[in-house]
Write a structure and sequence with these properties.
Mean pLDDT of chain A: 88
Strand content of chain A: 5-15%
Order of helices and strands of chain B: HHHH
Largest sheet of chain B: none
Shape of chain B: flat
Structural class of chain A: alpha/beta
Radius of gyration of chain A: 25 Å
Number of helices of chain A: 17
Oligomer: heterodimer
Number of domains of chain A: 2
Low-confidence stretches of chain A: 277-281
Number of helices of chain B: 4
Helix content of chain A: 55-70%
Largest interface: A-B, 108 and 81 residues
Mean pLDDT of chain B: 84
Number of strands of chain A: 6
Radius of gyration of chain B: 22 Å
Strand content of chain B: under 5%
Distance between the termini of chain B: 81 Å
Chain lengths: ~475, ~110
């Protein structure tokens, strides 16, 4: 490539600053939307520069524009039509294709280096190898994550005998191929490196249990960021380096924040199943006796309570019952009860996901209480109404070492005077373990589809 | 006096790491999902790299691979920003929407 004109370098600097402002904006509720728009404008402007770089003599412009149009149309279609409940797998998919694109770009650059006689500084080749390998890991890992969340495959940890050995061998192969590539750049080594990277990605995510998948999405997001940064070094493109590094660093930090919110360590999430830590998740349906109630009984408990805390979970959003729930809360409020929503940091399928889902149902922001703020209130609550949640109130997180969720901070719904559980069936939660709280004598179960039961409950409360 | 280019790159990298951590260090867990999604869109900037390598190749296989990379990167970048905006819209739209609803109820009552 010819020397980059100064004006383009200055545009890249401005775009880099915009990326920083975008991330800064995204971390505050008032500035988030503008932040995202600033980032989008910067990214689009940056991608236009090659078309105005006259010395570059950009070839194949019609094909390139067509490819951009196809990709953009696909991206916009997916982004517009995805249900809010399926947001995590959408983010995983977008992240995966980004990683895949970075790996392909690095392969092309390797091809270019070989065509020019194979003389490149070793650090350049090492960065190329890194981009190919980690980009492939991110691509394959994200696809498996997508499949798990979309329930195209089981969300339980998949572990087979010898998995640690295969995984270790694949990692060794990555290192060996990378060293080969640096010493003597060959196309086949690059392609095989990419394939082994795909294998590593699959093996990395297979043993991760469903409840931990969000952390993995965040981690793979950081991986892709670092991949893009290395790609920027390979292509001598400062903006790719800045953008990629910003995402890599903030993504890694965000992963640690999320893991802390769940009381887990990242290594435990990734390698816990390999060590046999999360084998308790049998997923069997229990036949132990429980106390089942009718919507009318539940309505009486709720209608005469002074303090009610709602614990919403993913099941609520899947049944699309959040609007009816908000109506119920309004009615209870009019009857004089104080009602709040207790939001577990990982309620839903991704940290903060429940906030998005309830915002969609226009629940007032003030009623959404974070775990630390509300956990002390449960002991004064007359009723805790658990709707479509399970793992986030499972006392096994405190009492059963060895359970997949052991150590995760939970909502203290068990401290409420009465607990109403709205459940479709006795099937265990996403983590696949039985919930002792269901068998507690304070607990009443209201079986049925969340939306159906919620409407009945609402009518029964109105009739009181 | 000249600068070692490698060290300049390293400098940019190290400073970007610190900035990346610093700018998001105060995020509330409410915004974790949109933040992750927005950051995800930013690394779609690999599209720029894909355009540059594809537009400067004369090899047909490389051209096809490059075009695939462009499609994938566009999905990441454009889809990522649009989906993030859709999520954030739900946070910001909440209050006006509620007022409209109340207004509609009043109209109905009248």
């Amino acid at each position: 490539m010819p020397a980059m004109p100064t004006w383009i370098q200055l545009v890249y600097l401005a775009c880099g600053v915009c990326f920083i402002l975008a991330l800064k904006g995204l971390s505050g509720p008032k500035t988030a939307r503008n932040g995202n728009i600033v980032g989008a404008i910067a990214a689009v402007v940056a991608c236009l520069t090659p078309f105005f770089w006259t010395d570059l003599h950009l070839h194949h412009i019609p094909l390139i524009v067509a490819a951009i149009a196809v990709g953009s149309a696909g991206g916009v279609y997916g982004a517009r039509t995805v249900q809010m409940t399926q947001m995590p797998q959408m983010v995983a998919l977008f992240n995966g294709v980004g990683g895949g694109a970075a790996a392909l770009v690095a392969l092309l650059e390797l091809h270019e280096v070989i065509a020019n006689g194979g003389n490149a500084p070793w650090f350049n080749l090492a960065a190329t190898a890194f981009t190919i390998a980690v980009g492939s890991v991110s691509f394959a890992g994200s696809i498996i994550t997508f499949a798990k969340l979309q329930e195209l495959m089981t969300s339980r940890p998949v572990v087979f005998r010898g998995l640690p050995i295969v995984f270790g061998a694949a990692l060794v192969a990555v290192v060996v191929l990378a060293v080969l590539l640096v010493n003597d750049p060959q196309m086949w080594a690059g392609i095989v490196l990419g394939m082994v990277g795909l294998l590593v990605g699959v093996l990395l995510v297979l043993p991760v249990g469903g409840a931990d998948v969000p952390i993995v999405i965040s981690l793979l997001n950081a991986f892709t960021g670092l991949t893009v940064a290395a790609g920027g070094y390979v292509l001598s493109n400062v903006l790719l380096l800045i953008g990629g590094t910003l995402v890599g660093a903030s993504g890694t930090f965000l992963t640690l924040l999320m893991a802390r919110a769940m009381g887990r360590s990242v290594t435990n999430i990734l390698f816990g199943a390999l060590r046999g830590a999360s084998t308790l998740g049998g997923g069997e349906i229990s036949t132990r006796p429980v106390k089942s109630v009718t919507p009318e009984d539940a309505a009486i408990m709720l209608g005469y309570a002074d303090r009610v805390i709602i614990v919403p979970g993913y099941g609520l959003a899947v049944a699309q019952a959040q609007h009816t729930l908000r109506e119920l809360v309004d009615v209870l409020g009019e009857r004089g009860a104080k009602v709040d929503y207790a939001i577990h940091p990982v309620a839903g399928r991704m940290p903060g996901h429940m906030n998005v889902l309830l915002a969609e149902a226009q629940v007032p922001y003030e009623q959404l209480r974070e775990m630390d703020q509300i956990n002390g209130d449960f002991k004064d609550a007359d009723v805790a109404l658990v709707v479509g949640a399970n793992d986030v109130v499972n006392p096994a997180a405190k009492t059963t070492p060895g359970a997949p969720i052991y150590g995760m901070p939970i909502l203290n719904a068990d401290e409420a005077r009465q607990i109403i559980f709205m459940k479709r069936s006795m099937r265990p939660g996403f983590a696949g373990i039985e919930n002792e709280l269901l068998f507690d004598e304070k607990t009443s179960l209201l079986f049925g589809d969340a939306k159906d039961s919620m409407s009945k409950l609402l009518n029964a409360v109105k009739a009181l | 006096m000249t600068l070692d280019t490698g060290v300049v790159w390293l400098t940019i990298f190290v400073l970007s790491v610190f900035v990346g951590i610093e700018v998001i260090s105060k995020v509330s867990s409410t915004l974790h999902t949109p933040l992750m999604s927005g950051a995800n869109a930013i690394h779609g900037i690999i599209l720029l790299g894909a355009i540059l390598v594809t537009g400067t190749t004369d090899n047909n296989i490389a051209l096809v691979v490059g075009l695939i990379a462009i499609v994938l990167a566009s999905v990441n970048m454009i889809g990522g920003f649009v989906v993030t905006d859709r999520m954030l819209q739900m946070f910001s739209r909440r209050k006006p929407a509620k007022k409209q609803e109340q207004a509609a109820q009043k109209d109905g009552a009248a």
